[in-house]
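Class I SAM-dependent methyltransferase: structure, please.
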Amino acid sequence: MGSSPKTLQRLKQLTWDGFLQPGSSICDIGATQLFGDASGHNARDFLTFYAERYDQAIPPDSADPDKLAAIINNGFLGDLLILAGFKYTALDIFHGTNTILFDLNVHAPGRDLHGKFDLILNLGTTEHVFNQLRAFQTIHDLTRLDGLIYNDLPMGGYLNHALYRYDPLFFSSVLPANCYEKVLEQISVGGGDQGPERPD
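Here you go.
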């Protein structure tokens, strides 16, 4: 599961537009890593943005430099979100920052998690889950009333990477079926990596 500077920009935009309050509770579907910020400029800008808006956020100059370096070098997005003042939890089958061991194929949120989160992040996780109904039901159940669900999932490419790719029709069908409102929609073009070599 991966995030990028694009993810950080979108989270700031959601805050700028009034949809995501600083200090909100976030549930990460899969303990996401941060990629593509080798210089650390985007992570530092993210911390600065939230430190200017929330007194519990830690500005980059006050953060532990070793911890910040670990985040920048493909570390966990959750560590950056915590520094920015968010209350962060992840659900995953592997250990990570503030992670509850949870299999999206079979588990369901209990009472302690139901409706608890202001924002759910699904940044490249559900395409690896066989049981799509259970996975998206979990996302729905975790989200508080008027909360946000942020899906950043593949629509094409990624040959031999995932079980599923998502068509815009999927999301345009999910929205009215669940009385959701769309607040942001963007389609990104991925990198130029080639597919695997064709065997002779």
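Notes: The two ends are 32 Å apart (CA to CA).
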